Write a sequence for this structure.
């Protein structure tokens, strides 16, 4: 009986040792804390605060797709604010368009990103009409 218990303990220890790197790795489907906080700000309609949080994240070499998507949404939301100067509105929409385009370059099959890009283009065209 004694050798069987040792075998079980070794098997359990090996399984746990193999699983530790998976626990330590970040979940790609889960946004970072900054992105999650910005997502809440976007949901609450606090677009300028979300942009302040997301812009530094978008300036790095490797940019999180969730951060870029939320940046685009925040820029579109901020562009629709009342009493906004046309120059500022156009700049925000250009920022949103750039964010959505950068996502589509890497993953062209993202339908939601395509829809948001189309909405940003529509808003930009409707401003100039």
């Amino acid at each position: 009986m004694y050798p069987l218990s040792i075998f079980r303990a070794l098997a359990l220890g090996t399984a746990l040792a193999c699983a530790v790197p998976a626990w330590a790795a970040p979940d790609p489907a889960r946004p970072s804390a900054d992105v999650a906080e910005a997502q809440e700000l976007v949901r609450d309609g606090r677009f300028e605060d979300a942009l302040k949080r997301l812009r530094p994240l978008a300036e790095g070499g490797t940019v999180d797709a969730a951060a870029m998507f939320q940046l685009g949404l925040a820029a579109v939301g901020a562009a629709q604010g009342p009493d906004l100067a046309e120059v500022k509105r156009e700049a925000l929409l250009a920022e949103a368009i750039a964010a959505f385009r950068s996502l589509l370059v890497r993953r062209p099959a993202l339908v939601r990103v395509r829809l948001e890009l189309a909405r940003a283009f529509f808003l930009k065209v409707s401003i100039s009409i």
In short: The chain has one domain: 27-128. The two ends are 84 Å apart (CA to CA). The domain at 27-128 is CATH 1.25.40 (Serine Threonine Protein Phosphatase 5, Tetratricopeptide repeat).
